[in-house]
């Protein structure tokens, strides 16, 4: 890769495409990771609690609210990117045991070299397929499983089925939580199917997203929070409403209405998630 200054863009071929690290002109020490032109992560090396992407702030809000502040958690991250959320958890919940699974070994190496994270023996990064890693994990090992896996800006089919969801439920402790980043656009067929599928094994949940995305007006990210007990809907609603880009929370009857009659997804019929509209990332920093 060679030497670089903090103002220089880094471009490097990795296993799953062309990775770019772009410096944030507004925040010294901050970088955006893009893969084949699609933004994957934004990290602030000086302040891991600064979260630029709105869906990441919604995932972080869920982390803040599912357990008392500062309580260490056991977390499995499916999808690594630039380790934005693992860095956040390490900063806000010291002592948390975190395992990050990322399929792209060259990407892990690039992030380790260019955007090193603070030394933490309890934060381990493993190069592996997400579903294979789940299958090899013992029952009840984690408090939280986070899914933020994209290949070519789409979530692979093998991570969208009820068989996959059952593996997630198996590795969670009885009071554990599944947090998933769902990217979809009109008519939200993929997101509806994912909520229906996950609720077969983790029946209590809510969905957090921008109002325009929830109404099927544009493509965007929806955060699913699912478990075996009721999520902190009131607190999540306040956090979403007070965000830089306010969001809405769907739960209870509203979530039932959102799902409608969407069918549960099985391995045999599973497909990759909805592709983003052409050119959508060209206007993003």
Automatic annotation (TrEMBL):
NCBIfam families: MFS_SpdSyn. It comes from the Bacteria. The keyword Acyltransferase does not apply. Transmembrane segments: none annotated. This is Spermine/spermidine synthase. SUPFAM superfamilies: S-adenosyl-L-methionine-dependent methyltransferases (SSF53335). InterPro entries: SAM-dependent_MTases_sf (IPR029063). It comes from Micromonospora gifhornensis. CDD domains: AdoMet_MTases (cd02440). The lineage of its organism: Bacteria, Bacillati, Actinomycetota, Actinomycetes, Micromonosporales. Keywords: Polyamine biosynthesis. The keyword Acetylation does not apply.
């Amino acid at each position: 890769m060679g030497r670089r200054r903090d103002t220089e863009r880094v471009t490097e071929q990795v296993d799953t495409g062309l990775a770019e690290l772009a410096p944030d002109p507004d925040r010294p020490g901050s970088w955006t990771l893009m893969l084949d032109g699609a933004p994957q992560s934004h990290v602030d090396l000086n302040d891991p609690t600064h979260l630029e992407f709105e869906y990441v702030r919604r995932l972080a809000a869920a982390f803040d609210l599912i357990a008392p502040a500062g309580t260490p958690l056991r977390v499995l991250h499916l999808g690594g990117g630039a380790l934005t959320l693992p860095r956040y958890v390490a900063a806000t919940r010291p002592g948390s045991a975190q395992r990050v699974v990322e399929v792209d070994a060259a990407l892990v190496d690039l992030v380790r070299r260019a955007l090193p994270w603070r030394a933490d023996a309890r934060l381990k990064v493993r190069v592996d397929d997400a579903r294979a890693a789940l299958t090899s994990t013992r029952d009840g090992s984690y408090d939280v499983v986070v899914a933020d896996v994209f290949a070519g800006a789409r979530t692979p089919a093998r991570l969208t089925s009820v068989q996959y969801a059952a593996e997630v439920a198996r590795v969670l402790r009885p009071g554990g939580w599944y947090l998933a980043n769902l990217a979809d656009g009109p008519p939200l067929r993929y997101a509806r199917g994912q909520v229906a599928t996950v609720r077969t094994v983790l029946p209590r949940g809510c969905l957090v997203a921008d109002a325009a995305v929830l109404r099927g007006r544009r493509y965007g990210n929806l955060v699913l929070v699912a478990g075996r007990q009721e999520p902190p809907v009131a607190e999540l609603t306040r956090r979403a409403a007070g965000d830089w880009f306010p969001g809405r929370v769907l739960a209870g009857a509203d979530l039932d209405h959102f799902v409608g009659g969407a069918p549960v997804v099985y391995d045999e019929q599973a497909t990759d998630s909805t592709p983003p509209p052409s050119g959508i990332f060209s206007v993003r920093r």
